[in-house]
Amino acid sequence: MDKASFARKWPPATADQSDVGELAMCLAGAPAEDEEIDEIKSAVLAKLALDLGKDASVATERDWFVAAALTIRDRIVHRWLAVERANYAQGRKRVYYLSLEFLIGRLLADVLWNLGCTETFRAALGDLGVDLNRLRAAEPDAALGHGGLGRLAACFMESMASLGIPACGYGIRYDHGMFRQVIRDGWQQEYPEVWLSFGNPWEFARPEAVYDIQFGGSVETTTSPTGVKRSVWHPAETIEAVAYDIPIVGWRGRQVNPLRLWSARAPDPLRLDAFNMGDHVGALSEQTRAEAISKILYPSDSTPAGQELRLRQEYFFVSASLLDLVQRHLRTDGNLYLLPLRCAIQLNDTHPSIAIPELMRILVDLHGLPWDEAWRISVGTFSYTNHTLLPEALESWPVDLLGRVLPRHLEIIYRINMEHLAAAKLKNPGASDSLEPISLIDERDGRKLRMGHLAFVGAYRINGVSALHTDLMRKTVFRDLHAIYPDRIVNKTNGITFRRWLLQANSDLTGILREVCGDAVLDDFSHMIRLADHAEDPGIGERIRQAKRANKTALTRLIGARLDLLVDPDALFDVQIKRIHEYKRQLLNVLGTVALYHAIRAEPARNWVPRVKIFAGKAAANYAQAKLIIKLINDVAKVINADPAVRDVLRVVFLPDYNVSLAKRIIPAAGADFHRGNGSLRHRQHEACCERRAHDRHAGWSQYRDSRSRRRRKHLHLRLAGGRGRRAPARGSGSKLGDCIVSRARGGDRGDRERRLFPRRCRPIPRADAGAAAFRLLHGDRGFRCLLRGAEKRRKAVAVAVRLDAREHLQHRANGVVFLRSHHRRVRPRHLESTV
What we know:
With about 850 residues, the chain is α/β, with parallel strands linked by helices. The chain has 31 helices and 27 strands. A nine-stranded mixed sheet has the order 5-8-9-2-1-10-11-15-16. Strands 21, 22, 24, 25 and 26 form a five-stranded mixed sheet that branches. Helix 14 packs across helix 17, helix 24 crosses helix 29 and helix 25 packs across helix 29. The longest helix is centred in the N-terminal third of the chain and has 30 residues, at about 60-90. It is globular. The two termini are about 50 Å apart.
């Protein structure tokens, strides 16, 4: 849908100045009035005394933050309630955004900027002897997300509020988020987040919005007096979902939309009979089992219990959200047949895909709608955003697990699949052999439910997040489904919430833009084009450079405070910040850093551009290979930062515990961006590029000519793996991984010990130039493999596998040294010359 048609479908909420009241009167940068400042001071002091029971003379920074947040929240509520009443009275369609993550960060600065009251509150708090910047730091980041998926969801919520679109986000109120990352001896260690330890001043508890979420049990088929067969689910376990609302404020306070988060609890918090019998721990077992659902984001699924918890977690928030929105719809419209006209449910990735059979269960089992009508309503209500083309990243669940946890939903899925396959056969009667790729059930390697396929079949629109990604989605992962439903896949290129990354994160650059482009640039980013008229103005260019250097100086101080490391603010800041994953290419970046380090040592007199390599991101707690990459980055940093020969030219930094607040410090200082990971910043070009063409675009294909035939070309791929499969190497050997790669890159002479350990017929691969060969770390690959392919014999690709004997070459396996058998007829030393 183009921008014009989108605006027609979702007209922004309009209100005159009197309707908006004080919210719209506070424009960004407007001078603060004395009466308003006095009013804010009185409100903050009242909150401090009445809500916190504190006197200003003994209040801590957190006390002041809570008092200020409650004061701001009071200003939001009246507008929120007025907009809700107006939207329901007008019968406007509402978006329900279902996402397992919402990476909203800190809200104090965001809300103040959106209301335009930053300077007013700064002056009021300053009169009370409180620094607004220190209050911002006192607010913890909301531990509700991890990476681009959660940041995208947060961007959509804020953007819909800014555009005046009635919306409600649904997610989970995680007690401890994913984890708090600490780096010790180069290794990542995980600790629980504590952001909710003393409550959240922005949220409203909704004790009236409590829903029973059911698991397990059995399904009974009954027949009504009229002969209609119905399925009755007899669940074995019930858990309560309790709602908490966080208001999301749009730009200039135009709209306030709720983010509704669910917290899990047991119907009976304590079994008194067991407690009184002395089983004090067992008396809390049911509550502990229930609360586990909303404790941690992405619990480890490496065990059967972890897999079940993940499935329970996804169904928990999906079921509560659908029960809530159906009840809300019935309260306002009273007719479920109008659901697609009043509600649009967006599934953010495959995590909430179980919503499709759950809505069918609600419509058919709870409200008695005929199956065909319920399916028409369901398909007309859901849309699905796909985020990846990697088959292993598209979620799937074992059928046995699904049948044990959600038996009624498995029945519904079977029927959906049966009718879907029957419709496919009608469209192409002779293609019975091609039904397996489009089936919702994957029969290979154990029966599994394909959640991506379920979302595709059960939604009326499926969108990619960039033009390239959408095109590849049609051609690869959903090719067969696209042939059956050719009108469902559409593209929606993701954008950014530019005001957060300008007004809040880069205030100096914001001042320049407002001066050059006018204040209208804050409302419409297209006015930034006016900056091009000043491209030749040396004064503007110098001011922009000064703003960049101020941001780099601030980041330099942060690095010094957290890592006790001095870096040059005049150096180029080369940044890669995103979750740590094998296909996110942090390993390629590290290898390029090692190659650069060697090149600097080899030519110290060359005019090198000083560079600071900055990494940040978290690895999943059970992802051994990703955690090993973090260890490698820190070991390489330890060697390079301690080398006086390169100290003024190259530095390597890993900043732990990456979150939105840290991103707001790093991004304004970045000079080079190695595919930055925050979804609101990289325009969500998406993993389609890195999955299909990462090696083409970043490392390149190295081509080698055979001297006997100019037409013959060979492509060299090197796969580098540490340890065996997914298991991390022994701690002693793994801790030397970075030192080993650096020492090998120096290309020193082979000593006697190395000559004894290396077989005479094997030769280590020489040091590699950055970009000369494509290194790819593949999880589950045992040993090392060199793959050479002849372009003229693509049908018979030649693979030369060199697997080191674990007993004789354990040292080299652990240190990641790669060998080639140079005597092999397909491998000659001249083939490697261009990689040296």
